[in-house]
């Protein structure tokens, strides 16, 4: 495992959403310090080709486009996943429109947006949630609900063949209410790690908790479980990290813990058979400590880009002194070390 490419000059984005389709990574929205967070302009899309290692910004939709009414507004804290050649985007917010709960679909072959007609119990508007795919079904977990003004710990399922939403029953002991966690699909299971929780459960009291345990949701039995994971004490709880699956393992990188006033630049591997954490050290220099970046898997490589870090000369805990990144790193799993 080693870092093979480091590039600068890409889109400077924080709290964006990205997916891989074929040889390309599609990045949607997010923000950069100094931008207008209240804009209602159409969301922007940047495409990275892993073969050419070049970025391309797609044309921004205009009112004359036939799909203009189905183009999401610029946002952050949203999620996106790919099912075949289609990308589904859900949730997120900006400082003008707030959060929304419309499901958007972007076709990577036609480069057009649509708003699929859905039925059932649509999840309330939120941001900071997770979205993952198991057998072409979408699973939304957690996040911060705008109308209820609280954290969520519910699981909503969307069947992409029928476009029907369903609020799933909670069997076992559900994961705690939280936002900016990660949800990673391994087989038929969804693994939840990290995020920001609160001592008052669903309510935000500024008494934050950063859980470092793993919760597992079985999409077949609809039951929650919490495996005993070795070396759990070694990994600190965090939010706004990246998580991805490769070879049956779950990897996490980066993140932030407000209680410790700490940004992370470490990488950990969770063996989902032995249930054991192990810190891994890829060869060659890698990304600096950061949060709110994206990481997408393309075969045996991971494209990691964006996010934000403390400025080199900033004081610890000073979140007004952050630097947004425009870099790209590619991690290669071709060899094991």
UniProtKB/TrEMBL annotation:
GO molecular function, one term: chromatin binding
Alphabetical UniProt keywords: Kelch repeat
InterPro entries: Kelch-typ_b-propeller (IPR015915), Kelch_1 (IPR006652), KLHDC3-like (IPR052637)
Database matches in Pfam families: Kelch_1, Kelch_KLHDC2_KLHL20_DRC7
Keyword Kinase (UniProt): no
SUPFAM superfamilies, per the entry: Kelch motif
Keyword flag GTP-binding: no
Protein name, entry field: Kelch domain-containing protein 3
Organism field: Branchiostoma floridae (Florida lancelet)
């Amino acid at each position: 495992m080693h870092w093979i490419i480091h590039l600068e000059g890409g889109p400077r984005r924080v709290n964006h959403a990205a997916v891989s389709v074929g040889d390309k990574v599609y990045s949607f929205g997010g923000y950069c310090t100094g931008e207008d967070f209240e804009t209602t302009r159409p969301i922007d899309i940047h495409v990275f080709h892993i073969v050419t290692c070049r970025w391309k910004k797609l044309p921004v939709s205009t009112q004359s486009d036939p799909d203009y009414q189905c183009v999401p507004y610029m946002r952050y804290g949203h999620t996106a996943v790919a099912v075949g050649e289609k990308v589904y985007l859900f949730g997120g917010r900006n400082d003008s429109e707030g959060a929304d709960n419309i499901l958007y679909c972007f076709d990577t072959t036609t480069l057009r947006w649509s708003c699929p007609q859905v039925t059932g119990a649509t999840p309330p508007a939120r941001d900071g949630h997770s979205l993952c795919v198991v057998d072409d079904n979408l699973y939304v977990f957690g996040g911060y609900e705008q109308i209820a003004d609280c954290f969520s710990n519910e699981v909503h399922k969307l069947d992409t063949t029928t476009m029907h939403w369903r609020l799933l029953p909670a069997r076992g002991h559900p994961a705690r209410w939280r936002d900016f966690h990660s949800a990673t699909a391994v087989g038929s299971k969804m693994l939840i790690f990290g995020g920001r929780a609160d001592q008052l459960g669903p309510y935000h009291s500024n008494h934050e908790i950063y859980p470092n345990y793993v919760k597992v949701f079985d999409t077949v039995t609809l039951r929650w479980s919490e495996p005993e994971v070795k070396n759990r004490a070694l990994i600190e709880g965090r939010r706004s990290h990246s998580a991805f699956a490769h070879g049956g393992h779950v990897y996490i990188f980066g993140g932030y813990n407000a209680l410790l006033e700490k940004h992370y630049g470490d990488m950990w591997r969770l063996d989902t058979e032995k249930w054991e954490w192990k810190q891994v050290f890829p060869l060659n220099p890698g990304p600096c400590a950061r949060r709110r970046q994206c990481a997408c898997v393309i075969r045996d490589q991971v494209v990691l880009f964006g996010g934000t870090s403390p400025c080199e000369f900033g004081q610890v805990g000073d979140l007004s002194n952050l630097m947004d990144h425009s870099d790209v790193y590619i991690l290669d799993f071709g060899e094991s070390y």
